[in-house]
Design goal:
A hairpin with a 2-residue loop joins strand 1 and strand 2 (25-37). This protein has one domain: Roll (Ubiquitin-like (UB roll)), CATH 3.10.20. The protein has two helices and three strands. The protein has a three-stranded antiparallel beta sheet, with helices on one face. 2% of the residues are buried. It has helices at 47-58, 74-77; strands spanning 11-22, 25-37, 43-44. The chain is an alpha+beta fold and 80 residues long.
């Protein structure tokens, strides 16, 4: 891919970190090959990479490490 589908900016190959949701779970993948728009930041993955992330998310593979993240509800801080 050479140009972004959304903004028509130039797309370049990079290795990134990616948050991947599967159901109620969120996974952080590191060292992910991707194509990223230099202009708007849109990220594109090959079908093989997406399939690999889905496979890992549904397997019982042990992660390299684990972390906790804070969870906030905007509804709790917004006035009605």
């Amino acid at each position: 891919m050479e140009t972004c589908y959304f903004c028509k900016g130039k797309v370049v190959k990079k290795t990134i970190k990616h948050l991947h949701s599967w159901g109620e779970k969120v996974f952080l993948f590191e060292d992910v090959p991707a194509e990223v728009c230099r202009q708007c930041g849109e990220v594109y993955f090959s079908p093989d990479i997406l399939e690999t992330m889905d496979h890992i998310a549904t397997s019982d593979m042990a992660p390299k490490s684990e972390m906790s993240i804070p969870v906030f509800s905007i509804a709790d801080v917004m006035e009605p």
